[in-house]
Amino acid sequence: MPSSRYVSPKSMYFREPLVLESGASIAGYTLVYETYGTLNADRSNAVLVCHALNASHHVSGVYEDTGEVGWWDNMVGPGKALDTDRFFVIGVNNLGHCYGSTGPMHINPATGKHYGADFPVMTVQDWVDAQARLADGLGIQQFAAVMGGSLGGMQAMTWTLRYPDRVANAVIIASTSHLSAQNIAFNEVARTAILSDPDFHGGDFYSYGVVPKNGLRVARMVGHITYLSNDDMSEKFGRELRSGEYKFGYGVEFEIESYLQYQGNKFSSFFDANTYLLITRALDYFDPAAKYGGDLSKALEKTRAKYLIVSFTTDWRFSPECSRIIVDALIHNGRQVTYAEIDAPHGHDAFLLNDARYHETVRAYYDRIWQEITEVD
Amino acid sequence: MPSSRYVSPKSMYFREPLVLESGASIAGYTLVYETYGTLNADRSNAVLVCHALNASHHVSGVYEDTGEVGWWDNMVGPGKALDTDRFFVIGVNNLGHCYGSTGPMHINPATGKHYGADFPVMTVQDWVDAQARLADGLGIQQFAAVMGGSLGGMQAMTWTLRYPDRVANAVIIASTSHLSAQNIAFNEVARTAILSDPDFHGGDFYSYGVVPKNGLRVARMVGHITYLSNDDMSEKFGRELRSGEYKFGYGVEFEIESYLQYQGNKFSSFFDANTYLLITRALDYFDPAAKYGGDLSKALEKTRAKYLIVSFTTDWRFSPECSRIIVDALIHNGRQVTYAEIDAPHGHDAFLLNDARYHETVRAYYDRIWQEITEVD
Question: How do B10-14 and B29-36 pair as beta strands?
Fold first, then answer.
C-alpha cells in the first residue's frame, strides 16, 4: 500500500444556523469530510461523492492507524474510474449521521444534553444545503460532478435541482426519484423495531447508558434482505445448514440466518438508532415530483446538468424501472443523459461491487468530463 | 344468511402420543375441526382443507354468535368451487397452532405448567400425521382431495408423500417445494423480533402475564409485505399521506405505514408468539427433496395422487417458478397434473381472494373429481 493512499478525515464547523425543509433549524454544526487528489487552479475538477445509509466521508484510501479502506475505494482513487489523479474528490458525512458530523448523539448547545429525540428530522435537500456550505468553505463554486449510489444518488439529483448552476454533471446510480409503498413499508418495519425496543427510551437512550441493539439488529436484517437479489441469496446461501442437519429449535441453523444475524449484530454495535430513523425518513420523503403534482419532468425543468444514470437488472429495491423514469423525465427536458442498465446478479448492492462493465461505464463518463474540463483550460 | 350456513367447531382428543419428525413426541392432544356437507355412504367424498400461517379450522360458513365468516368461504360452501352440497369438507386447526388445537399456550400434562418453550418444534409432516389420526377418527380411509394454499399446499403435497393411498387428489395453491434463502431470511427477521422482545421471556411469557406484542407486530408487518405484490401495494397505497403533508417525525404518516401498523397491532393482539416461531420453522424445514439429494422427482416417486397446481403471476413469496418446479417433478413421474398460472395482481394473497379464473379452475377440477366419484358409484 503506497503511503499516498493514506488519508485522514478533516472537519469544518458552520456557525450559521441551517434552516431545514421542515421549517426547523439546527444551530452551528460540524461536517466531517475527506478529500482525495488536488483541486486545480481554476477549481473546475471537484467531484462530490454522497453516501448512502451505512457509509461515510471515508470514500477512498486507507486510514493509517486502523487500515480501514474507504467504502467506494474500488471506484474512487488514483487510476480508478473516478480518478483522483485527475479529480479533486470530496467525501462528506451527512448532517445527522453517526460517523462524525453533528448528529443526534451529540450535545445540543441549547440544552447541554444529547440531542436525542430533539434532533430535527432532515431531508435529502437539507443534506445538500449543508454540503453546499462545505463547498463554499472549500472555495468550490461548481462541481465537475456530484455522484452517489442509492440515497447518494438522490443527493446528486437534488444538487441539480437545488443548485443547478453548481453541478456540471450528476452521476446517479441504483437510485430512484421516489420510494414505492413497498420501500416505505420496509422502512416502517425497521423503524417500528427500533421505536418499540425498550432500550430506545424515546430516542434518549444515551442518558440511560444503553443502546437499542435488538431494534437496530432487526432493522438491519430486514434492510439487508432488500439489498441482495433473491437469486444471489440463493446462490450464496441456498438452504445450506451450518451443522448439516436440522436442530429442531429456533436458534441459527441455516447459513442465511447466520449471515443476517452477523450483519445485524455488527451493525447494532456501532450504528446510531436515531440516525437510522432519520435516514429512513429522509428516504421516504424524497420525492422531487411531489411539489409538481407528481410530474417529474416538470420538477426537473430547472436542472442544467448532464447526467449519467446507472441501474442494475437484479436490483429489486430500486429497480431499473425507477432509473428509466428519471431518464425519461430528463430526456423530456432535453437534458443530455447517458443511461446504462447493467446486467449484474448482486441486486441493489451491485453499486458497491466490482463489475467491469459498470466501472468502465463510469470511467468513460469521467473521461468525457475530463476532456471537457481540459478543453476549457 | 340461511341458517344452514351456521357452523360450530368440534374437537377430537387423541390419547396416543404422537412421535414427531424430530424424534420428540407429544402426549395426548386435541385437534379442533369443522365439517361442512355430508359424508356419503361409501365415504368417498371427503376433502381436507389445510390452513396456512394465520388461519384455522373455520374454513367456511358463519359462527352464529360472532358472525365470523370462514377464511376460505369464497371457495368452500354450498354451490362454491369446492361445493359442500357434493363434498364432505373438513377444516382442522393444526397441532401447535393457537386457535384451539393443543399448542404452546396449553398446559403440559407432564409439568402442570404451560408448554411454552417446551412445546416441541413441529414439521409439516407432523401436522399431516396428526391430521391422519383425525381422518381415522372420522372414518375416512381416503380423501377425494387434500387442498391448501401456501403452507396449506405443503400439507397437501406431504399427504401424497406420507399417505399415498389415502389421497386421490391434491390441490396445491400458491405453494412451493421448499423455501428459498430469501424466504428463510424473512422468517428469521420475524423470529428475531419475537425472540428479542423482553416480554417473550424465552417462550414462557404466559407465566409473566405479558405478551411479546412488539415482536409479534414487527413479525407480522414484515410477513405482510411478502404477501402483497409491489404493484398492488403501489396501486392501493402509493405514497398517500394520511394528513396530506409531511409531519417531519417518526409517527405514522404514509397510508402504507398505517395499514401495516394496523395489521401488526391486530395480529399481535390475538396470535401466539410461540406458534409464530413454530410455523415459520415448519416452513423453513419443508423440503421433501432434501432426503433425496435435492431431487424432487425422486422424492415424489412414491406419490399416487392426481394434482391441481395453481400459482399467481405476481406472487413473489412463492412465485410461479416454484410451482413449475413441482409440476415438472410430477410430470417426470408420469403423474396426472393440471397446472394453472393465474394472471392476478394481488401477490401471494391472491390465493385467498375472489378471482373468477382461479375459482373456475378449482371448480372445474372438483367437477372432474365429482364425476369420478359418482361414476364409481
Answer: antiparallel
Q: Which amino acid is at A289?
A: A
Q: Which residue in the set A181, A195, A254 is minimally distant from B233, CB to CB?
A: A181
Whether the CB of A110 is below 8 Å from some CB of chain B: the reply is no
Q: Which three cell numbers stand for residue B30?
A: 386435541
Q: What ipTM describes this predicted complex? A: 0.96
Burial A237-257 (b: 16+ CB within 10 A, else e): bbbebeeeebebebebbbbbb
Q: What pLDDT shows up at residue B375?
A: 86
Measured in whole angstroms, the distance separating CA B258 from the mean position of its chain's CA atoms is 26
| Catalytic one of A60, A101, A150, A268 | A150
Greatest Cα-to-Cα distance within chain A, rounded to the nearest angstrom: 70
pLDDT in tens, A98-119: 999 999 999 999 999 999 999 9
**Which of A:162-191 have CB within 8 Å of B?**
178-182, 184-186, 188-189, 191
Active site residues of B: 150, 315, 348
Secondary structure of A168-224 as H, E, C letters = CEEEEECCCCCCCHHHHHHHHHHHHHHHCCHHHHHHCHHHHCCCCHHHHHHHHHHHH
Which triple of cell numbers denotes residue A5? 493512499
Residue B293 in grid coordinates: 439429494
CB contact under 8 A, A192 and B261: yes
Q: Which of B85, B82, B104, B95 is closest to B149 using CA atoms?
A: B82
3-state SS, residue B10: strand
Could you tell me the pLDDT band of residue B1, with boundaries at 50, 70 and 90? very low
For residue B75, give the nearest of B174, B154, B178 by alpha carbon: B174
For B341, the 3-state DSSP assignment is strand
Choose the closest CB to B184 out of A186, A254, A284.
A254
